[in-house]
């Protein structure tokens, strides 16, 4: 089933060429769709458009067949419950003045009336936070710490825990391992794969790292200068039919 359908999406900023130009793709329920391209090609702009953080100039974004590109903030609330994002920099994504437990509980409090959780249960704040931390392989004692008291890998796991706390259907992963060391990168990728299977999640995995995208994704898309230049199944990555730009990325794989 198509979970997300994007048709001819275009986004420009004042005084510049289109950051995203006439881009179309579909993301199926339960899959990880990878998007790879060099820095500045429009990947993060696309992510912000899909989250409706940025308005689009033209085109359409459909979630489960329903167009969402023209919805106002009130109308977007049910959509925001179903799609979450994990950003590149976990330090910027977490409020430095809040303890980890308060950052984790915030999405639940915001959407509590609309939630019908199946994987997590809420009996108390402490118990709920404990479940979330254990789901991302962190110890419960971290709940009372502040972000600066955690390592980079631990902070990113917290942002992942916050993203899954309201059991969304789709998570946009925008360079989720770019700020981590090699060991932490591998651990976080393994965790994300496990969570996708356990929680029946779908991912749009965005990265400049072709190796990470190849490891995570069933299907892959390649983006350059705001345009989607090709889409293919992962097992077709090394096909001779690949675009010359994709072959360039493979050469530095």
List keywords for this structure.
alpha/beta; six-stranded mixed beta sheet; 25% strand
Mean pLDDT: 94
Question: What shape does the CA trace take?
Answer: globular
Taking the sheet with the most strands, its summary is: 6 strands, mixed
CATH homologous superfamily identity? P-loop containing nucleotide triphosphate hydrolases
The count of DSSP E runs of length 2 or more, i.e. the number of strands, is 10
Helix content estimate? 25-40%
Strand order of the largest sheet: 6-7-8-3-9-10
Coarse structural class: alpha/beta
Alpha carbon gap, first and last residue: 32 Å
Strand content: 15-25%
For the record, the CATH class is: Alpha Beta
Specify Rg, calculated over alpha carbons: 18 Å
How many DSSP H or I helices?
9
Polypeptide structure, described:
The model has no long low-confidence stretch (mean pLDDT 94). The protein has nine helices and ten strands. The chain has one domain (2-251): 3-Layer(aba) Sandwich (Rossmann fold), CATH 3.40.50. It starts with a strand and ends with a helix. Strand 4 and strand 5 (66-67) form a beta hairpin. Helix 4 runs parallel beside helix 6 (152-164) and helix 6 runs parallel beside helix 7. It has a six-stranded mixed sheet with strand order 6-7-8-3-9-10, sandwiched between helices. Strands 2-1-4-5 form a four-stranded antiparallel sheet, covered by helices on one side. The longest helix has 18 residues, at 182-199. By secondary structure, the chain is an alpha/beta fold. The chain is globular and about 55 Å long.
